[in-house]
Design goal:
By secondary structure, the protein is α/β, with parallel strands linked by helices. The chain has 14 helices and 18 strands. The strands form 2 sheets. A 15-stranded mixed beta sheet has the order 9-10-5-11-4-1-3-2-16-17-18-15-12-14-13, with helices on both faces. A 3-stranded antiparallel beta sheet has the order 6-7-8, with no helix packed on it.
C-alpha cells in the first residue's frame, strides 16, 4: 500500500497517541523508533518517533529533517509534525525551529499549528491554550522541569521560536467550517504569514480544520488535529474504506505479563487492583538496589506462574519510597537502576515464553523497547484512550506501552481481554 501520511513525533508516547488516532480513523499505522535506517514498513501512515522534544535545537532539527527525508523517499503525500497538546517547548524551541526547517524543506511557505485535544481538556481560544478551565500557564505546566510553559498565548509562544511570523485564525472563522478555514489559511499564506494558530474547542472544529488542511504539504499539531486527516485521503480515493480492519494485528500468542515502572497515581491504583486478581510481585528496590539481583528475583518468582493470567511485576512505589531511594542513590541513578532492572525482567520474560506484555511508564517503556531491540510497532485496537495494543518487530511480540497516568483501574487485567484479531 502507498504511504499517505508521514509523521514525525517529538516523543515516544506522543507518537503512539497519534498512531492510535489514525488507526481509529481507518488508516493502518506503524510507529518506527528513531530515524529509520532501512526501508519503511508498509502502512497508510508511518509515525517516526524521535526524542527531540527537549534535545538541543540543532539535533532536533537534524533528526526531524532526516525523518522527513525518509518519509518523502517512501512517497508520503503529506507530512505531519506532532508535538504535545500542551505545546511543550521553550523560547529556543524545539517546535518553532523544527517547523521552520520542515517548511523550508517542503518549500510550502506556510503551516497550521494546533495542539488542541478537547477529549483531554486542551482547547485553544483567541490563541490561548487552556488545560481544562485553566490557562496553560496556570495549569501546573508553568512548573514543568524541562519545558515550563509560562505564557498561554500560542501566537506569542510560537512567535518567539520561529524566524517567521504567526497569526491567529479565530474561532468565528473556524465555526464557519472547512471552506472558511481554507480561505483564511490561503489568505495568510499569500500575505507571507508562515504559521496560523487556529482556535478550536470541539472535535468538530478539529475535523473541519483537518478537512481544510487537505493537500497541504505540512500540518503541525497534537494528535487531535490528525482526527480529520484520514477522511481527506478517503475523499480522493487514495485510502480504501478499512473501518476496524485497520487495527487488526496478528493473533496473540504466549504467556501474559505486566512490567510496571511508573509511580504515577493511576499506575499505583492499577497495581492495587492487580494484587487482588493476578500474581503480583512488588520489588523492594530500596532493600536490594541492584538491577541484576532484582531481575533474578523477579524471574525466579515468575517461573511456574506464567500463563493466560498475567504476572504483574512492579518496581512502582509511592512518593515517600521513591524519595527514599532517590535520597540514597540520587534521582537519575535511582531511575536508571529501576529501568535497567525492568528491562532485564522484560527480556527474561520474553525468553520464558511471554508473548503479550504490558509496560507501564513512559521512560520504562523506552528502556524495555530498547532492551528488546524493537524497531517498529504496528498499531492495533485501543485498550483505553491513548493506549493501543501494538505488534513489535522484529521480535514478534504484542506490546502495550502505557504512559503513567493513562488507563482505568483494571487496565492490567482487561488489556488481555481486548481482541486484536477477529
Ligand atoms: P511515568 O509514565 O508515570 O512518568 P516513567 O516510567 O516515565 O513513568 O517514570 C518513572 C520513573 O520512576 C522511571 O525512571 C523509573 O525507573 C522510576 N522508578 C520506578 N520505581 C521506582 C522506585 N521504587 N524508586 C525510585 N524510582 C523509581
Amino acid at each position: 500500500m502507498p504511504l499517505l501520511l508521514g509523521c514525525i513525533a517529538d516523543d515516544f508516547t506522543g507518537a503512539t497517541d497519534l498512531a492510535s488516532m489514525l488507526v481509529k480513523g481507518g488508516m493502518t499505522a506503524v510507529q518506527v523508533i528513531g530515524v529509520p535506517t532501512g526501508p519503511l514498513p508498509d502502512a497508510d501512515a508511518v509515525i517516526i518517533a524521535l526524542k527531540s522534544r527537549t534535545a538541543p535545537v540543532a539535533q532536533a532539527v537534524t533528526e526531524s529533517l532526516a525523518a522527513c527525508e525518509a518519509l518523502l523517499a517512501a512517497g508520503a503525500r503529506q507530512i505531519f509534525f506532532k508535538y504535545c497538546s500542551t505545546f511543550d517547548s521553550t523560547d529556543e524551541g524545539n517546535i518553532g525551529p523544527v517547523a521552520d526547517a520542515l517548511v523550508k524543506r517542503l518549500d510550502c511557505g506556510f503551516a497550521l499549528a494546533n495542539p488542541c485535544f478537547p477529549t483531554n481538556g486542551r482547547t485553544v481560544f483567541q490563541g490561548h491554550l487552556f488545560v481544562g478551565d485553566k490557562l496553560l500557564n496556570e495549569s501546573g505546566m508553568e512548573n514543568h522541569p524541562l519545558t515550563p510553559m509560562k505564557d498561554a498565548n500560542l501566537v506569542r509562544v510560537l512567535g518567539r521560536q520561529t524566524t517567521g511570523t504567526v497569526k491567529l485564525i479565530p474561532l468565528a472563522t473556524v465555526a464557519e467550517g472547512p471552506a472558511a478555514i481554507r480561505r483564511a489559511m490561503t489568505g495568510l499564506k499569500e500575505s507571507g504569514w508562515r504559521y496560523a494558530i487556529i482556535d478550536a474547542v470541539t472535535d468538530q472544529h478539529l475535523i473541519d480544520i483537518g478537512e481544510a488542511a487537505a493537500g497541504q504539504a505540512l500540518v503541525t499539531g497534537g494528535s487531535g488535529v490528525a482526527m480529520g486527516l484520514p477522511a481527506n485521503f478517503r475523499r480522493t480515493g487514495l485510502l480504501p474504506e478499512r473501518g476496524e480492519s485497520a487495527a487488526i494485528l496478528p493473533r496473540m500468542q504466549g504467556h501474559a505479563a505486566v512490567v510496571a515502572g511508573s509511580c504515577s497515581r493511576a499506575t499505583l491504583g492499577q497495581i492495587g487492583f492487580a494484587r487482588d486478581h493476578a500474581p503480583t510481585l512488588e520489588l523492594d528496590v530500596l532493600a536490594m538496589p541492584d538491577a541484576a539481583a532484582l531481575a533474578a528475583q523477579a524471574l525466579d518468582w515468575a517461573t511456574g506462574k506464567l500463563g493466560d493470567t498475567p504476572v504483574v511485576i512492579a518496581a512502582s512505589a509511592p512518593p515517600e519510597k521513591v524519595a527514599a531511594l532517590q535520597a540514597k542513590l540520587g534521582r537519575d541513578a535511582a531511575g536508571a537502576l529501576v529501568e535497567h532492572a525492568l528491562a532485564a525482567i522484560a527480556q527474561g520474560l520474553v525468553a520464558r515464553g511471554v508473548g503479550r506484555l504490558v509496560v507501564a511508564g513512559g521512560e520504562t517503556s523506552g528502556s524495555v523497547v530498547q532492551a528488546l531491540g524493537v524497531t517498529s510497532l504496528r498499531i492495533g485496537p485501543e485498550i483505553d484512550p491513548g493506549v493501543p495494543w501494538t505488534y513489535a518487530s522484529p521480535v514478534n511480540l504484542h506490546l502495550a506501552l502505557k504512559s503513567g497516568n493513562f488507563g482505568a483501574r483494571d487496565f492490567f487485567l482487561k488489556a488481555f481481554d481486548v481482541p486484536v484479531h477477529p
